[in-house]
Structures are given as C-alpha cells and as structure tokens.
UniProtKB/TrEMBL annotation:
It comes from the Eukaryota. This is Uncharacterized protein.
Amino acid sequence: MAVPDSVQFAARYIQTAAAEREERARMKQLVLEMHEAQKEEEMEWGHYGGPDAVLAHQFPVNVNRDRWVKYNHPKGAPDADVVFGTHSQKRCAN
C-alpha cells in the first residue's frame, strides 16, 4: 500500500522499522564476534580447556550406590514366641 511520507504515522513507522533493522544487524554482528572469539579460545585451549577444566566438569561419583541394599520387611505377622519369648515358667501367685 502506498502511503505518502508526509503522514506522521507512516514516517514514524518507517523510522521505527529502520531502527529495528539496524538493531538486529548490530546484535547479529555482536553474536558473530562472540562466537568467533569462543572458537578461537577453544582452538587455543582445546575443546574442554586445560586439563584442570576437564576435572572440574566431571560429576562426583556416588560411592554409596553399590553398598545400598533396599530394606525388605518381613511378610506376614511376627512370631509372638520370638518377640516375647516362651513363658514355660508359671507365674508366682501373690
């Protein structure tokens, strides 16, 4: 649609669109520069950095994983004789 440039709204819209294009181009250039710097650093130090960086990125090992045994509770009712003992002795009468 052809709108004359004399209209304020159209002029502001065109200015805003141009500013957005410039901002996108500036951000794109900034991201490309950061990416190039990152690639140069990786080439200089290797993919993961120095040998200390490799150790810093490793996760600690859970040493209790192999020793952990799931508790299996006994099934059924407990044996009363085992819990309380057998009462073969007669009670004393008072």
